[in-house]
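Late entry, written up from scratch paper. The run itself happened at the end of the previous shift, but nothing got recorded in the book at the time, so transcribing now.
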Amino acid sequence: MNDLPLILASKSQARRAMLAAAGITAEAIAPNVDEDALKEGLKSEGVTARNLADALAEAKAVRLSRRVGAGLVLGADQILAMDDGVMLDKPVDPADAIAHLKLLSGRKHKLFSAAVIAEQGTPVWRHIDIATLSVRPLSDAFIEQYVEAEWDNIRHCVGCYEIEGRGAQLFSAIDGSQFTIMGLPLLHLLDYLRIRGILTS
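Output as recorded:
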């Protein structure tokens, strides 16, 4: 077994929980990347949702990898794009969450979940996974009740849902991995960790 440490360039509780549940020990460290500024800059250049998720994941992995030195540093990001290309960010308050859900209601959207591993400041692995989700028509009453009940759980979630919780009620169909929807292409990551000897194959 390779004793090279795995470091998660994120304080995301969901990603930490996914790794732990899969039996992966990883220290979590904030990458100190100004995500909002980087995201706005890339959007102004017309970057696609897929490439935006990849660029943000790489920025986190590379920045932290340069800081910590030895180890494999995992950066991850997720972008939501509507069927017309409009991208949604995390809601800023309950009213914003309600507006987002009204926009999603009765429509399809895609989640692009990107993961990049950097070593010694250089990207050595990356994967972008896509899930397509169909939101059923949602009544105003449902949306308001849902946001009131779930705000503390969804305030950090792009799309305003946790698929593993009450958020499952939003959908009529889902095409893609639940791990991808939760923010990490986990199966592909596990495969790479086996190749590197971090996990037993």
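The chain is about 40% helix and 25% strand.
(Scratch paper discarded after transcription.)
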